[in-house]
Automatic annotation (TrEMBL):
It is a multi-pass membrane protein. InterPro entries: SLC26A/SulP_dom, SLC26A/SulP_fam, STAS_dom_sf. It comes from the Eukaryota. This is SLC26A/SulP transporter domain-containing protein. The chain crosses the membrane at residues 6-23, 44-65, 71-90, 102-133. The keyword Translocase does not apply.
């Protein structure tokens, strides 16, 4: 099953519907998850689900009127169990990058506590803050050539890297922008001339 197929179909429907004053279409994450778990292969499953729902509303409503809301919540939680199981992968994200792991946790918690819209807004703002911090204090170093190769690496990480006589190669691991111009100047003087500015 291609997970982007439903999103693409709804996008096309909304684009063409916008020219004819149609109501915008949307989808429910829980409904898509329930259909996927029940083995649905096409969008015809939605039609059958609508017919069954209409039958239940018209004829079986007195029987399920007193059904507790917690039972309905349990049904939705079981449908979303696969999403919550993905939280075990946060360890892998932390092994890759601590900041990415913190971003993942903040996004997850803010979406659950607030709402999807507000949670994603909080996550985007936090991610922009992380990017600004990374851009303002990037790493740098002097590059040296590995013996018998044409590879240039950071001499701090490779002890056998040779710095050429009379030439120093300064590596700045970020685009030079307004945020990091002072850090660039400071690290350049410190790494190449051993002068603190």
């Amino acid at each position: 099953i291609n997970p982007n197929q439903e999103l693409l179909a709804m996008s096309v429907a909304n684009v063409f519907g916008s020219f004819f004053s149609c109501y915008p279409s949307s989808s429910s994450l829980t409904r898509s998850s329930v259909l996927h778990r029940s083995g649905a292969k096409t969008q015809m499953a939605t039609l059958f689900a609508a017919v069954i729902l209409l039958f239940v509303i018209l004829y079986m409503e007195p029987l399920i009127y007193h059904l507790p809301k917690c039972v309905l919540s349990a049904i939705i939680l079981m449908a979303l169990k696969s999403m919550f199981v993905q939280t075990v992968y946060v360890r892998k994200v932390f092994k890759y990058s601590v900041m990415e792991g913190i971003t993942w946790i903040i996004t997850f918690v803010s979406v659950i506590i607030c709402d999807v819209d507000m949670g994603l807004l909080i996550a985007i703002m936090f991610n922009m803050l992380v990017i600004m911090i990374r851009l303002s204090r990037p790493s740098s170093g002097v590059m040296g050539r590995l013996s018998n190769t044409e590879l240039y690496v950071n001499v701090k990480h490779y002890a056998d890297a040779l710095v050429m006589k009379g030439i120093k190669i300064f590596h700045f691991s970020c685009p030079l922008i307004f945020l990091n111009r002072h850090a660039f100047k400071e690290q350049l003087y410190k790494k190449l001339f051993n002068i603190s500015r």
